[in-house]
Amino acid sequence: MDGVIRVLLVDDDPLVRSALALMLGGQSDIEVVGEAPNGQDGVALVGELEPDVVLMDIRMPEMDGLEATQVLHQRPAPPAVVVLTTFDADDHVVRAVAAGADGFLLKDTPPGDIVHAIRTVAAGDAMLSPSATRSILARLRSSTSTDRSSVAADRLTVLTERELEVAVCVGRGLSNSEIASELYLSVPTVKSHVSRLLTKLDSTNRVQVAMVVHDAGLV
């Protein structure tokens, strides 16, 4: 995306919010536009401030980060959400993706990687820590069944040949620019295809598209 990336911090620990704000404040292309101590206040601030990206904790009072993420992704034009947590449990990762999170990082992730994640999801790509990716793939491998594969394959029949090619690339974890290079398309064209994929597959983010492709056995 062009211009400054507007970021909202949602975490019940004021020290964490201060540390994140200090770290992000040194980036010329990122602006922290607000902070919230829980998911409920975070959802309200999204309506007021219209951030591009929300850094979301999971365990918070009033409304936790997973519920808040789900609420935000029911909005007509939701912000990208990066779940930032101290917990690396498989269930948290899968639930965050199901809720619509565009990224999942641990709080001990190096500052540079957090900044990179914000830029990545703002550009429309997904961003998962390596451990989160392993958790999702492990869950997929352990739960894959003939019925699940059949359902996933049926869902993909609504796609055009080109959309299916893009979906497979998404399933491989490629970014928009990487897909554009591999399929000889422009980045705006790839973004348009990804947008149609999300609509046709009733998905809220690229990771959910990737999960359908994995279930169908195409990657």
Key words describing this protein structure:
about 220 residues, alpha/beta, Rossmann fold, Arc Repressor Mutant, subunit A, 6-stranded parallel beta sheet, 11 helices, about 55% helix
Task: Sum this structure up briefly.
The protein has two domains: 133 residues, Response regulator (Rossmann fold); 71 residues, Winged helix-like DNA-binding domain superfamily/Winged helix DNA-binding domain (Arc Repressor Mutant, subunit A), CATH 1.10.10.10. Helix content is 55%, strand content 13%.
Describe this protein's structure.
- This protein has 219 residues and is an alpha/beta fold.
- The protein has two domains: 5-137, Response regulator (Rossmann fold, 3-Layer(aba) Sandwich); 145-215, Arc Repressor Mutant, subunit A (Orthogonal Bundle).
- 55% of the residues lie in helices and 13% in strands.
- The chain contains eleven helices and six strands.
- It has helices at residues 14-24, 39-49, 65-72, 90-99, 111-122, 130-143, 146-156, 161-171, 176-183, 187-200, 206-215, and strands spanning 5-10, 30-36, 53-56, 80-85, 103-106, 127-128.
- The protein has a six-stranded parallel sheet with strand order 2-1-3-4-5-6, with helices on both faces.
- Helix 5 links the parallel strand 5 and strand 6.
- The mean pLDDT is 84.
